[in-house]
Design brief:
This protein is mostly beta strands. The strands form 2 sheets. Strands 2, 4, 5, 6, 9, 10 and 11 form a 7-stranded mixed sheet that branches. Strands 1-3-8-7 form a 4-stranded antiparallel sheet, with no helix packed on it. A hairpin with a 5-residue loop joins strand 5 and strand 6. The radius of gyration is 13 Å and the shape is globular.
């Protein structure tokens, strides 16, 4: 089994910053893509960002230039640095990892941005 434990998140005012992390543990082989998605109240889930094991990263247009994703392969951990946060970034953020063709999700962490 694979477990993903997220940390970080919380509440911040518009323009502020927050950092999230997600550590994978358990029966881990080689981790492929790691990333983050989010779901705002009453809205469909939204892909936010992904990073490949060689470091190539991709971002949704809504967060490009404001969010940074990184990973520590030795620690099986992915990080999300969020800056210039906006109220529309308010959502539950879920980390996601792909291992040998299977996708695993974290439990989710709340990010709330007030105006």
């Amino acid at each position: 089994q694979v477990q993903l434990v997220e940390s970080g998140g919380g509440s911040v005012q518009s323009g502020g910053s927050l950092n999230l992390s997600c550590a994978a543990s358990g029966s881990i082989g080689r981790i492929g893509v790691m990333g983050w998605s989010r779901q705002a109240p009453g809205k469909a889930p939204e892909w936010v960002t992904s990073i490949h094991n060689i470091g190539t990263a991709y971002f949704a247009d809504a967060v490009k230039g404001r969010f940074t994703i990184s990973r520590d392969n030795a620690a099986n951990t992915v990080f999300l640095q969020m800056t210039s946060l906006k109220p529309e970034d308010t959502a539950v953020y879920y980390c996601r990892v792909e291992i040998l063709g299977s996708t695993y999700w974290g439990q989710g962490t709340q990010v709330t941005v007030s105006s």
